[in-house]
Amino acid sequence: MSLSVHFGWPLRVYWEDTDAGGIVFYANYLKFFERARTEWLRALGVEQHALKGQTQGMFIVSETQLKYLGPARLDDQLWVTARLIEKGRASLVVAQEAYKMTPTLSLGDPSQGPKLCEGHIRIGWVNADTLKPSRIPQTILEKFE
Amino acid sequence: MSLSVHFGWPLRVYWEDTDAGGIVFYANYLKFFERARTEWLRALGVEQHALKGQTQGMFIVSETQLKYLGPARLDDQLWVTARLIEKGRASLVVAQEAYKMTPTLSLGDPSQGPKLCEGHIRIGWVNADTLKPSRIPQTILEKFE
Amino acid sequence: MSLSVHFGWPLRVYWEDTDAGGIVFYANYLKFFERARTEWLRALGVEQHALKGQTQGMFIVSETQLKYLGPARLDDQLWVTARLIEKGRASLVVAQEAYKMTPTLSLGDPSQGPKLCEGHIRIGWVNADTLKPSRIPQTILEKFE
Amino acid sequence: MSLSVHFGWPLRVYWEDTDAGGIVFYANYLKFFERARTEWLRALGVEQHALKGQTQGMFIVSETQLKYLGPARLDDQLWVTARLIEKGRASLVVAQEAYKMTPTLSLGDPSQGPKLCEGHIRIGWVNADTLKPSRIPQTILEKFE
To answer: Quick check: D80 and D97 in contact, CB under 8 A?
Structure first.
């Protein structure tokens, strides 16, 4: 499905996201990536809160690798992407990038502004009570085909 | 201007917003309120980052009063309002509320779902370097007429 | 017990606490106050996580009122106090203050530095599953006598 | 200097650190690591806020790699380490780990509890205004010898 190949989500930088260096605090890109990843999963039909009720399972982040390439500032608009790059039985790896939108670019292809951050996020499927890893339900795996 | 009377902004609850009680962490409503307040100011033509460059001044939060009326949970959609209730020479008071959107309500009037949080936020105008209070520039005050 | 009358907790300001204004982001004082309040409760013998297992109840913040009096900056050391000012059957009100420690003051009375923030926090006792208000267990109320 | 080889810092898990999964939100380990890294630098004589005034330079995080090995919960005490593993002209790589302290272990060697998170953080030296990479001042590099 094309959504599993390419997905983007717009974000605005607020005071809460910045630090005394005048730029977005680096740890907050993990939050930005998660917002985009959540919306990507939702667009694929994977509602995390509902799933927890149905399957007693949930995705949990098990590894993160990020590179910071440039600063974002207050009021900037960002475009955050999500793309599946590895599909295992118990975990997925999602490649994610954050771009700065510019007035002209936002009208066209927002992912062609300067890239500010890129990374890989591994999410594993676990039992929601024990947090033990388990196999991703087939109904979820099918969403990524 | 009607925007200064009534404004709403939609938000989604992500993992980052929740705590181990299974609900939105109360301090995060200050962030939600600020996002809505920022977009309300932007809609009125007040761009905070640009203003800082032009006037060497900025708004700073000087008082907050919040009441928590009900819980929000992961994946909930919220509708956050902002409304000017006091306009002084050096500060403004903004009344804000957060409502839970429901599938049917979100199509009609989103502010008629259950109210989760309400509060008053006082923002004062300060010199960006010294953080000393000063008079709000007339060009900004006019936006609220 | 004197702890319920006066308690203080030291904190350091890190990058995560600041915003692009170069100072501590105002919403973070709610976090600072909660850290101090948690340690005050712990000093009184009230362990929140353990209580949740024993009583199926927990404290939840229901009202916050804060005034911001001065800025804190990166690397500053703060002294955050907690003091019970109202004890009801279902809720408590805690007065809290944040002071900036100075090199000389920290050796003496840290609460005599400049006051940066003050507020009242109402915490209510709720059933941990339903989040419905209920009476504070007597064994907890006794800690505040 | 032995501090650059091994350093540990204690932390407590508060409500602000947890998410609706009942455990510490993974992005917050970047904050925990930064608190320990800041205190490690301070112990080595590197005060970041003061340095910014003196040198117009500052450290900025340029890469993060984290693995999440186990959950931390509300009220847990953690022991977070920092150790220099690479020293370049313009950047340093710091290896960091978070351990759960246990009542007996905290009296002895806190770093022998279960390991919850481990990672590598690359920090680069930049001009505080332009954010352009530059060489780490010699007076700072000497601290790590």
So the answer is: yes
**Angstrom distance (rounded) from CA D1 to CA D3:** 6
> Which residue is associated with the tokens 């590197």?
D46
For residue D142, CA distances in Å to C116, D15, D38, D57, D128 come to 37, 39, 17, 16, 21
pLDDT digits (tens, 9 = 90+) for A106-135: 555 666 789 999 999 999 999 988 999 999
Residue ranges of E strands in chain A:
7-12, 57-68, 77-87, 91-100, 115-127
Give the pLDDT confidence of A1-50 residue by residue, as tens digits.
Answer: 455 567 999 999 999 999 999 999 999 999 999 999 999 999 999 988 78
Between B19, B73, B74, which is nearest D18 by CB?
B19
* Average pLDDT of chain B, as a whole number: 90
For chain C, what is the mean pLDDT?
90
What whole-number distance in Å separates Cα of residue B43 and Cα of residue B24? 27
**Using CA atoms, how far apart are residues C13 and D132, in angstroms rounded to an integer?**
25
Q: Do D131 and A67 touch (CB under 8 A)?
A: no
Question: Which of the four pLDDT bands, split at 50, 70 and 90, describes residue A55?
Answer: confident
Nearest CA-CA distance, residue B118 and chain C, Å:
10
Q: Do B49 and A14 touch (CB under 8 A)?
A: no
Please state, in angstroms and rounded to a whole number, the distance separating the CA atoms of residues D10 and C118. Answer: 27
Query: In the structure, how many helices (H) and strands (E) does chain C have?
Result: 4, 5
pTM, two decimal places? 0.94
Could you give the domains of chain A?
2-144 (3.10.129.10)
pLDDT tens digit string along D68-95?
999 999 999 999 999 999 999 999 999 9
- Contact, A4 vs A44, CB < 8 A? yes
**Stretch B108-137: mean pLDDT:** 89
Please state, as a whole number, how many other Cβ atoms lie within 10 Å of the Cβ of residue D87. 13
Q: What percent of chain C has pLDDT over 90?
A: 77
Two structure tokens written together for A125 = 């499927």
Q: Quick one: CA torsion of A63, A69, A73, A79, rounded to 10 degrees?
A: -70
pLDDT of residue B95 exceeding 70, the answer is: yes
3-state secondary structure at position A113:
coil
Interchain proximity B15–D23, CB inside 8 Å:
no
Mutate to test the interface with B, among A30, A38, A51, A76 (most CBs of B within 10 A): A38
d(CA B134, CA B127): 7
Cα–chain center distance at A37: 3
The predicted structure's pLDDT at residue A108: 56
- Hey, which bits of chain C come out as E strands? 7-12, 57-68, 77-87, 91-100, 115-127
Q: Is C109 a catalytic residue?
A: no
Helix (H) or strand (E) holding B32: helix B28-43
Q: What residues have CB less than 8 Å from B90, skipping those under 6 apart?
A: B124, B125, B133, B134, B135, B136
Q: Which chain A residues touch C19 with a CB distance below 8 Å?
A: 15-16, 18-20
